[in-house]
Design a protein that fits this description.
InterPro entries: AAA+_ATPase (IPR003593), AAA_lid_NorR (IPR058031), CheY-like_superfamily (IPR011006), Homeodomain-like_sf (IPR009057), HTH_Fis (IPR002197), P-loop_NTPase (IPR027417), Sig_transdc_resp-reg_receiver (IPR001789), Sigma_54_int (IPR002078)
Distance between the termini: 63 Å
Radius of gyration: 32 Å
Largest sheet: 5 strands, parallel
Structural class: alpha/beta
Strand content: 5-15%
CATH architecture of the largest domain: 3-Layer(aba) Sandwich
Domain Sigma-54 factor interaction: 145-374
GO molecular function: ATP binding; sequence-specific DNA binding
CATH topology of the largest domain: Rossmann fold
Keywords: ATP-binding, Nucleotide-binding, Phosphoprotein, Transcription, Transcription regulation
GO biological process, one term: phosphorelay signal transduction system
Shape: elongated
Number of strands: 16
Length: 453
């Protein structure tokens, strides 16, 4: 059942107030009436209203004071002013104080119904926007970023200081280490959290389109420019612009970006009129920009402009203690999405994950957990459920934890025999030939390893 809109009607003319109350109630609204500003303030103190409709002139106060009170206590409540013809100019000025609209006397109820419907729609959109922004803030809270390793604790400590500033940040780290996640956490925990977060993946946009994507363009600037369009910098006004893969930016655009950072203004493609911007810059790269400067592929002055606060992210292989909590997190996520029972890692499976070097970092681990959640029939993930490259690496590396050589050799034999049988459609003679063994030797090994014959 749709929730009724709660309206507070403040009007000192009793007959008009009662008539309007009846009409609003007939329209399905919940209406409370008040004959004075003082009574209206009392009702506002006791209850929350979606819409306040008030006469601009009351015996003991005026609609402007009521408007300020409402907007100060409940910014999402919309205020509609009732005014006489002579005071329409005053009502328009009141809208600058936050009034939604005004209607003149004598009231046209059909017109008022339209204004109320628009106010309800606006309030719903604002409420949804607040809810979505809260969800984003909750999602990107520091506590939701998994990292118990000392190197990650250093990252968190630096991030907590970064969010108190508006300084430019350069996030560095290998692909898959979570640079965009960290950029969003900086934004949604900072002073600009309620403003836009605009991400630009510089390496994914063709060079001939990147300039207009960043800075916008005016109508007629090039073939197909049928109207003016703002760029990402303008879209990020008062918020944050995240320049991912900044190291791939062409040299020509690096020069223009440097000017934007220096002057805090952009020029749309095809225009000579500068547009002031106010956006925090967070850039990210998996390249060593200092080395790129030496090679001549990245501007030195731009590097220093971006590298105000460097934030390096450690690769997953250097934070082994985070592999288990990350794996559990991703398993829980994908088991829930796939509506299957919770899954666990066996000791051997975890040891394999901790021995692996993870060239794709956290992103690779997440993709693997999605794969095993989709393809593993049992609820426990064993060594055999993992891809061959992870199994083989875990079986051939000696870590600080040591290694059980006998068990490891047995696992290697079991893995190779399984692969040979799969290639031979289960025909043991053919599998034995692939392994350069006699069939009887293969069967004996399978029996010793506890494999089904």
């Amino acid at each position: 059942m749709k929730e009724r809109t709660k309206i507070l009607l403040i009007d000192d003319e009793e007959s008009g107030r009662e008539a309007l109350t009846l009409l609003l109630k007939a329209g399905g609204h919940h209406v409370s009436g008040s004959a004075s500003g003082a009574e209206g303030f009392q009702l506002l103190g006791r209850d929350k209203f979606d819409i306040v409709i008030t006469d601009l002139f009351l015996p003991d106060t005026n609609g402007i004071d009521i408007l300020k009170k409402v907007k100060g206590d409940s910014p999402l409540t919309e205020v509609i002013l009732i005014t006489g013809h002579a005071s329409a100019e005053t009502a328009v000025r009141a809208m600058k104080e936050g009034a939604f609209d005004y209607i003149t006397k004598p009231l046209n109820f059909d017109e008022l119904k339209i204004i109320i419907a628009k106010a309800v729609e606006k309030r719903q959109l604002l409420t949804e926007n607040v809810y979505l922004r809260k969800q984003l803030r909750d999602k990107f809270e520091f506590a939701n970023i998994i990292g118990t390793a000392p190197s990650m604790q250093q990252v968190f400590a630096l991030m907590k200081r970064i969010v108190k500033t508006d300084s430019t940040v350069l996030i560095t780290g290998e692909s898959g280490t979570g640079k965009e996640l960290v950029a969003k956490a900086i934004h949604f925990n900072g002073q600009r959290r309620d403003k836009p977060f605009v991400a630009v993946h510089c390496g994914a946009i063709p060079e001939n389109l990147l300039e207009s994507e960043l800075f916008g363009y005016v109508k007629g600037a090039f073939t197909g420019a049928m109207r003016d369009k703002i760029g990402k910098f303008e879209a990020a006004t008062q918020g944050t612009i995240f320049l991912d893969e900044i190291g791939t930016m062409p040299m020509q655009l690096q020069t223009k970006l440097l000017r934007v950072l220096q002057e805090q203004e952009v020029e749309r493609v095809g225009s000579t009129r500068p547009v002031k911007i106010d956006a925090r810059i967070v850039a990210a790269t998996n390249l060593n920009l200092a080395e790129e400067v030496k090679k001549g592929t990245f501007r030195e002055d731009l590097f220093y402009r971006l590298n105000v606060i460097p934030l390096p992210l450690p690769p997953l292989r250097e934070r082994v203690e985070d592999i288990l909590p990350l794996a559990k997190h991703f398993l829980a996520k994908y088991c829930k999405e796939m509506r299957r029972r919770a899954m666990t890692l066996t000791k051997e499976g975890l040891e394999a994950l901790e021995s692996y070097q993870w060239p794709g970092n956290v992103r690779e681990l997440e993709n693997l957990m999605e794969r095993v959640a989709a393809l593993t029939e049992e609820d426990s993930i064993t060594l055999q459920d993992l891809p061959p490259n992870i199994r083989e690496e875990s079986l051939t590396r000696v870590t600080e934890k040591g290694v059980d050589l006998v068990r490891t050799l047995a696992e290697i034999e079991r893995s190779m025999i399984s692969d040979a049988l799969a290639l031979s459609d289960g025909v043991k003679a053919r599998a034995a030939a692939l392994l350069n063994l006699n069939r009887t030797t293969l069967v004996e090994k399978m029996r010793r390893l506890g494999m089904p014959l």
